[in-house]
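Box 3.1 A note on notation
Throughout this textbook, protein chains are presented in two layers. The first layer is the amino acid sequence; the second is a token string describing backbone geometry. Keep the layers aligned when reading.
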Amino acid sequence: MFVPASAVLLLLHALAQLTLRARQQAEYLADDLEARIGSTEAAIGGMDVLLLADAIAFWLDQQYVTAGTVHRATRGAGREPDEAVWERLKEYVASIPEHELERRRRVSVLTAHAEDQTHPPTHLRRAAVERREHHAAAIVLDVARNKEVDAELDPARRSLGREVLRG
């Protein structure tokens, strides 16, 4: 049984390697599409946020602890955990100075930072988007449509905010 099992495992490993390359190529194509639809600057900004994942996770952990403390202190008062966590997160990310982003970009080159093992390194994805033709946003929402989208997403945003803060 060892020989057939080894052969199957070897075949599965080979298939995984072949599909990994295709998945990484698809990621570069998705980045190009993102730049064409939302703008090159937005695509690059999104990749910069990927470099902040550990800082964001730490910030969310702090919010969880704070919400738990407030919830225990106000138990019985009918108070729900703060659902505005996403607005505060946006403010936190915006407050990170450019020099810290630049430092993280340099570190990502040295460490080959990637979202996970199936994604190409973030710095290579970013460089590929920067090298291509720069695009303005192809889809821009007017104020009214933006409010409609926000209203549609609001129940999910509030629910997820409560779940994140409750653990």
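The radius of gyration is 21 Å. Helices lie at 2-38, 40-50, 53-73, 85-95, 98-111, 122-131, 143-166.
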